[in-house]
Amino acid sequence: MVDLNFLSGVYVLLTYFAGAIFIIGVLIRIIVYANTPMPVKIPLTPAPLTKAGSVGRVASEVLLFKSLFRANKPTWVAGYIFHVSFILLILLHFARHFVYHHPLPQWYPVFVDAGIFFGILMFLSLFYLLLRRMIVDRVRIISLFSDYLILIILMMIAIAGLSMNFLISAHALTKIDNRLDPFINGIATFHPINIPANPYFLVHYSLILLLVIYIPFSKVMHFVGIFFSPTRYMTDNPEEERYYKPDAEDLSL
């Protein structure tokens, strides 16, 4: 971290700290999930009778949110829009790192417009989900502070990101863009350089670091937990195949 100013030094340390917390936290949660005893067979019926069917069932939950679609279609629409928008925004941010160069490709404005479009969709879907938690009685009763917190953090990330396209000049935005790739490359290669000092970018980046740190301790871990959910991945064949686990031997009848 040679020749870094104080602000950049702080953000470089926070970036590495957030990355370490995320990786270690997710790995620990995966280990806990994998080692949690499953003493009885508890597929959510009607359930598939074969392993291939169970794989398809988990895939339908991951890709289509099938259970949510059956249970509550308005919530499914908002939830699906959010997840698709969020994933596409991550991919667009990642792809931007490889397409932002001089001269810019002619289609780059379309690339930027796509990011703005999905950013707006992400915010609106989150706003609906937040209102639902606040207004619908049966949802508000079971909602915890953490349920509101993750929605608010994500909404603030969307607002901060969109603000860079609507509230600052094109020259200032270009200046951020020109310095962002070298900063990310420096982080990735462990040769950090000064961070873009624009306050709008710093707020956006700070919120992203907060989200990265918070994920292992939040319900966002459902992106991993769904693959360890016995009600989803288990087959409904207790008669054909005896379910036996050594760590559940004391529960045998």
Number of helices: 11
Secondary structure category = mainly alpha
- The oligomeric state is single chain
| SS strand fraction | under 5%
Shape: globular
Question: Major beta sheet, specifics?
Answer: none
N-to-C order of helices and strands:
HHHHHHHHHHH
Overall tally of structural domains: 1
CATH architecture: Up-down Bundle
Structure characterization notes:
With 253 residues, the protein is an all-alpha fold. It has one domain: Transmembrane di-heme cytochromes, Chain C (Fumarate Reductase Cytochrome B subunit), CATH 1.20.950. It has eleven helices and no strands. Helix 7 runs antiparallel to helix 9. The relative contact order is 0.17. The mean pLDDT is 91.
Lay out the secondary structure.
Blueprint: H1 6-35, H2 51-64, H3 66-71, H4 73-99, H5 108-135, H6 137-142, H7 145-166, H8 170-188, H9 199-214, H10 222-225, H11 230-233
Quick structural gist:
The chain has 253 residues and is mainly α. The chain is built from eleven helices and no strands.
Characteristic key phrases:
mainly alpha; Fumarate Reductase Cytochrome B subunit; 253 residues
